[in-house]
Amino acid sequence: MNIIEIIEKKRDKQKLTKAEINYFISDYVNGKIKDYQASSLLMAICLNGMDEEETTILTEAMLNSGDIFDLSKIEGIKVDKHSTGGVGDKVTLIVAPLLASLGLKVAKMSGRGLGHTGGTIDKLEGIPGFQTSLTKDQFINQVNDISLAIIGQTGNLVPADKMLYALRDVTGTVSSIPLIASSIMSKKLASGAEVIILDVKVGKGAFMKTVKEAIELANLMVKIGTNIGRKVMAILTSMDSPLGNSVGNNLEVNEALLTLKGKGAIDLTSISIEISAHLAYLAGKFESLKMARQKVEENLKNGKALNSFIQMIKAQGGNLTKDLEKASKHYSINAKIKGVVSAIDSLKIGQAAMLLGAGRMTKEDEIDYKAGIIINKKPGDKIEVNENLCDLYTNKELNDEVKELVESAFHIAKSYKEEPLIIKIIES
Ligand code: URA
Description:
Elements: H1 3-11, H2 18-29, H3 35-48, H4 52-63, E1 78-83, H5 91-101, E2 105-110, H6 120-125, H7 136-146, E3 148-152, H8 159-169, H9 177-190, E4 195-202, H10 211-227, E5 231-238, E6 246-247, H11 249-260, H12 266-282, H13 289-301, H14 304-315, E7 329-334, E8 339-344, H15 346-358, E9 372-375, E10 382-383, E11 388-394, H16 400-409, E12 410-413, E13 422-427
Parallel strand pairs: 1-2, 1-4, 2-3, 4-5
Antiparallel strand pairs: 5-13, 6-9, 7-11, 8-10, 8-12, 9-11
Helix pairs in contact: 1-3, 2-4, 4-9, 4-10, 5-11, 5-12, 5-14, 9-10, 12-13, 15-16
The structure holds uracil.
Uracil binds next to helix 9.
């Protein structure tokens, strides 16, 4: 077997065998296949695709390229959630403690933000003292004690994805559904959970811009997870507008706390309830989805979910006795015309938050935890001339580019048509 034949086969739209896919991954990871050959195969996959069987084999080969987290020492049902990335997406900070408060075990590895999308680990690192890296024993003991731990991705988890993703990023081969599905699922499956919900974001601020491609990606990921023996479902949710009222790390932790106190924004609260209820039901914790939803709502109201969050913060060394700080400079963006907010472009808001300091352009950039945007008018809200739309927080000098970007993100019209937040549920 040689890599040139494999490239030619995919170039000619043929199906690759298990032996060929395994050979590609193992010889690429151990350096025998060169970057230019791997890029050529990735481009052939991008153009000619892979079917479900090939994508499952690719995922398994990537999954087996490094360590697989063994959660067998954790007693109970191990659950996980994954978001494909959004703006203002602090759902993990709400759903993880909610699930823990139901008695499910959440041993979660999360990522950092890149570009205009945020990451859970960055948000948690804004909490003074909070440790996002624990030893394996500390991690497992904490989940056994309090049902919840969230850490950054550790060790030699899916090295094939680290190498392939870096290559895809610079060779125009990111946007391929089989490559995205295998990249996401290999990492999720390596983290060890038995029951997984995938929050596939769709819209302006998301990876998947159309419902059609999001359904295709979600279907494929659910099938791969199921083929590999896990219980997996996907929920397609809108990312046309930012989720909740805040974008930026400390601001989002503050909003997550408010939501766990039952005072959160409607969109954020309802997505968090739906994801938690569906996952708890899929995990077999309740006889019906309705019962799962009732219990989730109850634990949001009675403070049990908040208590799980606070327990996790303490267990991981964090000190969260008051709201986290905002950046020192503050600017208001006011409406220039009267009407109703008909949309808020989440991509523009995400880009503006990044320029204020809340995100990074490259993995090496430092972020400013205190920077971000608080949105005071959401789609559907009426607005008068000069009324406040949102507040910007930064430690940098604010330039006109950011102000104009934020102003242009707010669409003000005469009327507003409500679009569904939850677009589709995909079960295996
Ligand atoms: N997220 C990933 O982890 N991988 C991709 O390929 C795309 C998004």
